[in-house]
Amino acid sequence: MVGVVIVSHSAKIAEGIKELALQMAKDHPVFTAGGTQDGGIGTDPMRIQEAIENADQGDGVAVLADLGSAVMSVDLAKEMIEPELSARVFLANAPIVEGSIAAVVEASLGSSLDKVLQTAADAKNMNKE
């Protein structure tokens, strides 16, 4: 099973996205790393590392992030985890809200990591007219 990690500068945003996603895919392994250790706005590579390790179910982890420095923190977190796991962790090129929901639903269907990442990325093309 593919795990999902949601990384945001805000713990409230990360938890809110998780709550939305789990409305459509209950009990799927979704973990968040929002905000800093002291509850502030920002990202923390150690919190992201822990979320990735918790999300790993053996089939890989899709990570979704909100802003540029979150992407840098994800990269740092990947450097801190075991190489075998790091090789199965990928940052989705996707919008954080739509991409996270799409990724969680796809992962809950038992899809491969590649399919989960592609489904998340496809959320960029969602027509909102």
Question: What features would you describe in this structure?
Answer:
The protein is α/β, with parallel strands linked by helices and 129 residues long. It has a single domain (3-124), classed as Phosphotransferase system, mannose-type IIA component (Rossmann fold), CATH 3.40.50. It is built from six helices and four strands; from the N terminus they run βαβαβααβαα. Strands 2-1-3-4 form a four-stranded parallel β-sheet, with helices on both faces. Strand 1 (3-8), helix 1 and strand 2 form a beta-alpha-beta unit. Helix 1 (11-24) packs parallel to helix 5. The model has no long low-confidence stretch (mean pLDDT 95).
Summarize this structure briefly:
This protein has 6 helices and 4 strands. Strands 2-1-3-4 form a 4-stranded parallel beta sheet, sandwiched between helices.
Helical residue percent? 40-55%
Helix and strand string, N-terminal first? EHEHEHHEHH
How many strand segments?
4
Question: According to CATH, what is the topology?
Answer: Rossmann fold
CATH homologous superfamily annotation: Phosphotransferase system, mannose-type IIA component
What's the CATH architecture name? 3-Layer(aba) Sandwich
User: Over the alpha carbons, how many angstroms does the gyration radius reach?
Assistant: 13 Å
Largest sheet: 4 strands, parallel
> Whole-number average pLDDT?
95
Indicate the low-confidence ranges by residue numbers. Answer: none
Give the neighbour order of strands across the main sheet: 2-1-3-4
Instruction: Estimate the strand proportion.
Output: 5-15%
CATH class: Alpha Beta
Number of domains: 1
Distance from first to last alpha carbon: 34 Å
Shape by Cα distribution: globular
Count of alpha and pi helical runs: 6
Structural class: alpha/beta
